[in-house]
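Work Package 3 (structural annotation) set out to generate three-dimensional models for the target panel prioritized at the project kickoff. During this period the team completed the workflow that converts sequence records into discrete structure tokens, so that structures can be stored uniformly alongside our sequence database. As a representative example, we reproduce one entry of 191 residues exactly as it appears in the project archive.
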Amino acid sequence: MKRNLPRPDSQLKGPFRIDGTSPRGLSCLYPFFFMKKINEFFLSIACLALVTSMIMAVANMILRPFGHPITGSFELMGLGSAIVTALGLGYSYEKKAHIAVDILFKHLHKSLRKILSLAGRVVCSLFFLAISWKMLLLAINFMENGELSETLCIPFYPVTMLVALGVLILAMNLLSNDLRDTFTQDQGDKK
């Protein structure tokens, strides 16, 4: 059974189609595609860390009454939580799983909303780039000083670098959305 789907060329908005592809061969310059793959890759790492943390927590709860708790489980849960949170940021932003308060924005004109939204994302991008840079410097400091966790003596710097990378991915998501919104026209945005 054949469905009547609109032709891709009829979905053009600016130099890009709605799905982000370019009829002029510019898709390799469009950052939105590789950001989606990067987000999915880091989300899979975050999911693996989450499942591992859950298995360890359940095993610790089962073994504790028998006098065999997992040593350092609290440290491992903390490090795993940092990894899950940081590496899931980009995917969460891509899927719009964040909270946006638009009480005032919905009363503004469409063009002013677009300008303020773009300015807000640029400021957020710069903010998260700065956080990522400071986290990287902190990780280097941890590595040079040999900072270790108390119980298991796990080095802190790999986890700190992963957190810095997760925040950097969030900043790159914000920047890619800025570029996409700059080079495309809104469809369906009323007012």
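The chain has one domain: 30-97+105-183.
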